[in-house]
Design brief:
Its cofactor is Zn(2+). Its EC number is 3.6.1.-. Monomer. Associates with 30S ribosomal subunit, binds 16S rRNA. It is found in: Cytoplasm. The structure is a single chain. This protein is α/β, with parallel strands linked by helices. The chain has three domains: 81 residues, SH3 type barrels; 163 residues, Rossmann fold; 69 residues, Probable gtpase engc, domain 3 (Ribonucleotide Reductase Protein R1, domain 1). Helix content is 28%, strand content 21%. The protein starts with 7 loop residues before the first helix and ends in a 9-residue tail after the last helix.
Length: 345
């Protein structure tokens, strides 16, 4: 990655939200730079005068959210080239870390649009798509569902209809990730200075799509396994890729490793927004603490009985809400414990 110049910061996604933070505090000896990749504890940054790999080991006095992630804006000391601080994020995509350890895993910061990539085959899963939508809505990032591998289905349009039915106004695009003309329709989401992150299972074609939009094959890809159609992890580094789009340049694409598990935590508002039809009915329940099981005057039960609410969708809503409550409670307990090796800030 080469250093940028001139309008480089704006091209990298620098906006008033970030410049106001710099002008409001000390920083005359610092310069802003954006994290374009994270790999094994080191971050690569780009900015006016920067094209460096630096250590991410600033004095951390908290958890994972106090460490830089791809898409972050940093203030770098001009002389020592060390990290001074991470600027407040306009958006942050995160999830509980997979496994038993309920740490937070950061996906990307300062993202404008989230491409939720799925394929027109056995990978298409309504429940999983709703989880990604909750992730996007909680972070206040615009979600767009990208459907790939239309050639694997005799009726790819049915997948588009099913995706758009998840939420009013939800955008869904059917593309051939290998065809530049087809993929070019997505360029409008990634204009000058815009950042788009791609999430989805391994093997759905995220890296292929990024390669096509970039006009190069710099990211390795692998075929899915025969038999179960599951993909193999190709992307192992979260990295920003420049989308070339004419003389002014396009925006940035963030390719992320495939996710086999997407737990929910601290996403109550996202769940409410994605399942607005269900939560609106729940407000009419007789009791504020209704469990929507067998209480008298349960509006949810009444709506399912009359057919205005889909019982399967209600079931998915309850599962996500309960999972979020449990994980959020565990996270609150974890945050209340004293940090190891130093004081909290």
């Amino acid at each position: 990655m080469t250093a940028t110049s001139g309008s480089g910061l704006a091209q990298l996604g620098w906006k008033p939200f970030f410049s106001e933070q710099v002008s409001a505090g000390p920083g005359h000896h610092c310069a802003p730079a954006r994290v374009v990749s994270v790999h094994r504890g080191r971050v690569t940054v780009s900015g006016e005068g920067f094209a460096d790999s630096i250590s991410s080991s600033l004095p951390v006095r908290g958890g994972a959210e106090d460490r830089p992630t791809v898409g972050d804006w940093l203030l770098i000391d001009r002389d020592s080239r060390t990290l001074v601080r991470i600027l407040d994020r306009a958006s942050l995509l995160k999830r509980p870390a997979p496994g038993d350890d309920r740490r937070v895993q950061l996906i990307a910061a300062n993202v404008d649009t989230l491409f939720i990539v799925t394929s027109c085959d056995q990978d298409f899963n309504i429940s999983r798509l709703e989880r990604y939508l909750v992730l996007a809505r909680e972070a206040r990032v615009r979600p767009v569902i990208i459907l790939t591998k239309a050639d694997l289905s005799p009726m790819p349009g049915s997948f588009v209809d099913a995706a758009r039915a998840l939420q009013p106004g939800l955008q869904a695009e059917l593309v051939d990730g290998r065809d530049p003309a087809s993929a070019a329709r997505l360029a409008g989401y990634c204009g000058f200075g815009e950042t788009v992150a791609l999430v989805g299972s391994s093997g759905v074609g995220k890296s292929t799509l990024v390669n096509t939009l970039k006009g190069s094959a710099s990211i390795a890809t692998q075929p899915v396994r025969e038999g179960d159609g599951k993909g193999q992890h190709t992307t192992t580094v979260r990295e920003m890729h420049r989308l070339s789009d004419g003389a002014d340049g396009g925006g940035w694409l963030v390719d992320t490793p495939g996710m086999r598990e997407l737990q929910m935590s601290d996403v109550a508002s996202g769940v409410t927004e994605v399942f607005e039809d269900v939560t609106a009915v729940a407000l009419a329940c007789r009791f504020a603490n209704c469990t929507h099981a067998d209480e008298p005057g349960c509006a949810i039960q009444a709506a399912m009985a009359e057919g205005s609410l889909d019982p399967a969708r209600v079931g998915r809503w309850r599962k996500l809400a309960e999972e979020d409550a449990v994980n959020s409670g565990a996270a609150a307990v974890r945050r209340s414990r004293p940090a190891k090796g130093g004081n909290r800030r």
